Amino acid sequence: MAWFTLSVLNGISYGLLLFLLSSGLTLIWGLMGVLNFAHAAFYMLGAYLAYSLSGWLGFWWALLLAPLFVGLLGAGFESLGLRRVRAFGHMSELLISFGLSYILVELVQGLWGRSAVDYRVPPMLDGPLLTLFDTQFPLYRAFIMGITLLVLGALALLVRTRVGLVIRAALTHPEMVQALGHNVPRVFTLVFGLGCALAGLAGVLGGNAFVTEPDMAQALGGVVFVVVVVGGLGSLRGALLASLGIGLMQTFVVALDVAMLPSLKLSQLAPVLPYMVMVLTLVLRPNGLMGSAQRHASY
After folding, report:
1. What does pLDDT average to in each consecutive run of 10 residues of the chain (299 residues)?
2. Exposure winner among 71, 171, 258, 292, fewest CB in 10 A?
């Protein structure tokens, strides 16, 4: 029972971290129609900025400032680069964001090196939340869960408020929204910046829970896109369900670690499990668990 309980808690905490990262990508697609291939690179950048800011100002200031810096960088990229190529279609958007991801990875390697950095959990949150039969569940993982649930509530309110209505209307009827006095380009810049800030926040929280290294963007980048596709493009509720499902499945597969063949253990399938789920989902439900043919963010 202790093993099962702790596995569930670890799976939920990992799944909520995946949701925190994928929520920004879901928001950008649902409200702008842009698949940001640099999203995982913003996650990586948030972790490295938090590492440096923690050494100068402490973790709590890093938790506030690092996502803000990443969000401002994302807003600048949207206004100076992405906005100029949107008229040429989705392929141009994909290519410019794909190029930015490589630039950010090289920038991080140039500034912080190619090896992992010593980004640690703050002492106040470093310890067990509970102990079951000599097995501990970390307090910091519970902190990640709490922050993610707060973000989920804030996003649910945003989508349903007047601001959310203006943002969604700007995607489908930009001329009308502009005629009503709203600055549509500025709305898109704010949405893109917010999505990148969420990726940066995930980096701040996930960088010390796991490992902060240049390969962290590549390690989680594919899984994040799987979450968004499985949940349904533009659906925050779908992203939450997919994140929790994939987090729990991967955690239990690793925890079981039983031998399937003489040279193959079940835990070795954990990295490919999300992609198997995505393929199965696309075959059975092409629009995802909670997705629809319409492209707008929903809860």
Report:
1. 78 92 86 84 95 93 96 93 83 89 93 92 86 78 93 83 73 73 80 93 92 88 88 85 91 72 69 89 86 55
2. 258
